[in-house]
Amino acid sequence: MNDKHLTSHFELLGRISGGFAAAALFLSAMPVQAQQVADRPRLTVAVQELPDSLEPVMKTRTSAFQVVPSIFDFLIETDYSDNFDRKPGLATNWKRIDERTMEVDLRPGVVMHDGRVMTAEDVAFSFGPQRVSGEDAPAYGPSRAYLKTIERVEVVDEDTVRFVTSKPDPVLEARLSGWMSQVVSKKAFQEAESFSDWERAPVSTGPYKVQSFKTKDELVLAAHDDYWDGTPPYSTIRYVEVPEQSSRIAGLVAGDYDIITDIDPDQLELVESYGDLEVVGGDTIMTRSIRFSTNHPVLKDPRIRLALSLAIDRQAIVDSLWDGRVGLTNGFQFPYYGELYIEEHKGPGYDPDRARELMAEADYDGSPIPYRVLEHWYPVELPTSEAIAAMWEAVGFNIDMQVQASWDTILVENPAFIHNGATLMNIPDPVGGLWRVYGEGSSIDRRNQWRNEEFNKLGNVLETSLDPQARRDAFKRMLQIVDWEDVPATELHMRGAFYGKRAGIDWQPTPAPYLDFGPTDTGVN
């Protein structure tokens, strides 16, 4: 326990109760479990934005990744600090029965936030038609890119389920440990007055449960002391929405916050200059990208999109705006793919001369191309956007940069502009990256932003083949398509995530953007 937290906590109790003697009397009268809660520190985290929903199947943005994981668990856990090793979570064992069926043994005695013991019915419901897989389910559309191969979940007995896929799925184990595979309470979901009520206070099995939630203000989580994997280290976690970076830093300096998120690279030295503060973080399992919409008459030509990609000096952006603290990518892939990482693939680099040649071949006439950006959603987004726009204009493009107030005018159907984006590696496989973001059923596909038939055929091989070489060959060809032939977007660099924290807080982030404040004694979480 942090001494400063302990002192400030008892001082507060002393003021309320009339001094330390009254505080001691107050504590002695409390039940043992309540005393344990009181003895634990409280954590306050300032975030750039809170999600408007705590239901993970509805949100795939950083704002959700930062707060939702403390509420939920997966059947199979991923240790992001240990080479993405998969470990037992709510499941103790899993085995393939045949090429379409996996049997999963559930951990007995898992107490959910509503006091019920988790059963196979809860697990089957979590992936079932009322919540996810039915066409009328609230998360049907968003979940297709993550869970579409899961046809049904069969209850074998109270502690056993079988996942049946519509076709062979080589990454089913990874899907069950990735985003949207969180388990919820069937009874609590069905008893909620509305889905809107549910997504503001979902009931699951994680180390913390929802105590209160005020949209655009704060989220308070309370320790779930019946947690199956150990005692949560904090009595409460309070997430506060603080959009302005300067206000987050000022609050950290003043001691109002224990941890703050989303520090721009040019502010890291300022935070580090305070002796009682630390900066942690680095590359994540996300990349920053620029996305092109083929509905625009100029962007419809693949030569123009490739020219835009080749006109970007990615190294200059990393060096000047990120102080060299993040790495570049080799096209649309992550080094965590193991044998599926195509090391010999050459992603697009900086080649302004070739960009000009392509513009001439496409008979580009100087027509303006809209580029919609947010002022500060991603770290240094506006400076990065301005630098990229200048690079495009240097080779002869006419760029109309339009700063938007929110995503509402960017994530639209049939877009006809360029916009910023990011790619989360949901699982350490191209199915959880390139294919999920740009393939059939993806948000890009649903908005009619880009579609390539050969890419989709290859993606189906990647998603269903149990032959490692066939999958590797398919992915290699998919990379060639998206990086050089029919460019839907272009990767910029790894997305860095930097946090400020008080020196006494014993917490380190992993490459995942999921903030984990659960118990660490077992090594599972």
From TrEMBL:
Domain Solute-binding protein family: 87-441
A UniProt-annotated Pfam family: SBP_bac_5
InterPro entries (UniProt xref): Peptide/Ni-bd, SBP_5, SBP_5_dom
Localization, UniProt: Periplasm
Keywords, ordered alphabetically: Plasmid, Signal
The family this protein is said to belong to: Belongs to the bacterial solute-binding protein 5 family.
Protein name: Heme-binding protein A
